[in-house]
Amino acid sequence: MRNIRLLWQIFPSYVFIVMAVLFGVGWHLTGAIEDFFLRQTAADLEARARLVSPQVALALEVGDFAKLDQLCKDFGAAADARFTVVLPSGVVVGDSIEDPARMENHASRVEVADGLAGRVSHSTRYSRTLQQAMMYVAVPVANEARIIGTVRAARALTAIENALKTLYRQVPIGGLVALVLAALASFWVSRRISRPLEAMRHGAVDFAQGRFDRKLTAAGSMEVCALARAMNLMAEQLDDRIRTIMEQRNEQQAVLASMVEGVLAIDMEERVLHFNQAAAQFLGVDPQQVQGQRIAEVARKADLQRFIGRTLECPDPVEGEIVLQDPETRYLQAHGTVLRDAEQQEIGVLIVLNDVTRLRRLENIRRDFVANVSHELKTPITAIKASVETLMDGAAVSPADSQEFLKIIAKQADRLNAIIDDLLALSRIEQNDDVSGMMLEMQELEPVLRSAVQSCSVAAADKEISLGVACSPALQSRINAPLIEQAVINLVDNAIKYSEQKSSVQVEAEVRNDMIEIRVRDRGCGIAREHLSRLFERFYRVDKARSRRQGGTGLGLAIVKHIVQAHSGTVTVSSEPGAGSVFTILLPAA
Hints:
Layout: H1 6-62, H2 65-79, E1 82-86, E2 92-95, H3 110-116, E3 121-127, E4 132-143, E5 146-156, H4 158-208, H5 222-258, E6 262-267, E7 272-275, H6 277-283, H7 295-298, H8 302-313, E8 318-325, E9 329-340, E10 346-355, H9 357-392, H10 399-430, H11 432-436, E11 441-444, H12 445-455, H13 457-462, E12 466-470, E13 476-479, H14 481-497, E14 504-512, E15 515-522, H15 544-550, H16 556-566, E16 570-576, E17 580-588
Parallel strand pairs: 12-14
Antiparallel strand pairs: 1-2, 1-5, 3-4, 4-5, 6-7, 6-10, 8-9, 9-10, 11-13, 14-15, 15-17, 16-17
Helix pairs in contact: 1-2, 1-4, 4-5, 9-10, 10-16, 12-14, 14-16
């Protein structure tokens, strides 16, 4: 059904009612006026006939019909009416207009018959004699209770008809004027009723759009004012409640957004109810675009879907682990519980995801570290023990054998000492207190780099490897010179160990992008891509057999990483098998 404005519902109704009232009043009024005129005319004719009847009675008693006829003509001319005297036989003996002798018998006339019967009667009909509508009133003429005739008075209705025609013209005109005035009044009343309601409608629209500061004006009838006050009160209460809800929602959103744990709300049909930012990052989706979608369409993760299915089926909290095979494997600790509404009806499940990838990696590093330390320490200890047992078994008798085994013991003891020294150095660098208390001074880098290269010159000369330094003498930075020198020594020493004979190792330093870059470039065998991410872990070796032949402890690059971190910098590596490697230390510029 089409909606219509209240104004156009009230106004036409008022106009229709006014039209109906005017039509009814006009119809009744014209009928009453017409009836009034006819009754007045009939009464007037009856009065005139009664005035004439005494004289007519005298003339009838003596039978002087000529006098009766003349009397009718005289009275008719004086009274502006037609008088007719009729005997009981219906014979006309006197008339104001016609010759009675030529007039037909009037016994059949209704008013004459009633008059001869002793009753006053009147009738209205068209007169063929006068060719116009006439009203007739007959009054009986009696003599001592005997009807001796009747006097009929008549008058033409032309004047009445003309007056009624004029009335019929004036009544519609007056009714039309009254209708226009009533329509204007109805329109004004309708607007007076609908305007406050229209204002309230606009106010309700403002309230629906959240503009609660716009108050409704309480004007009009008592009911409208009461409604306006009620709506204003409702707006205030809604504003307070919505503000409270928005504050609570913003707090919840802020809490969820700041959580490092991923939070997913899933309904019973596995459609997404809510995703926080952490969960979206875990699953690689946009939280604004997944609302209402099925989780299988949002994130195609088999482990996650199986865990959600388990949570939906189990009324108790569920725990599990989810492995996401992204470019890098990610481990998520998942906790699931049933989600209920205010009536404690199950509406879905709540999944909380905690990223334990770093813990897993640290656990793996710890496990590898323990294994590597054990292996690194066990190798020299085994050699020392074997040498001692050989000496105890009799080799000590021979001076030459004794010297050989003692050299082995000394060498392996030095190796143990080197491993322990590196571990202690690494431990000192990793200590936060030592790092925070480490003195950093503005110093030139070139002397530090040349000193480090000089320390490795003997090892380079053994392999006929050329060493070079490219650094501006004016380049300065806030550093701890001994630690930076140790880091560069470790990098240059590694470059020498894994470079071929008669190759070159270059140490470069320059400022780029507000950072000081110290690069150690070699032409060695290079490193495969899969090893680059773990290269700075303790005891991690790309080629374990070759590394042990070279005599390293496996802690050099780990020491470099922690020294650079102590200077608020980073260390990176780029390498390709067969093309050499470039280790880059990035330090904040002065």
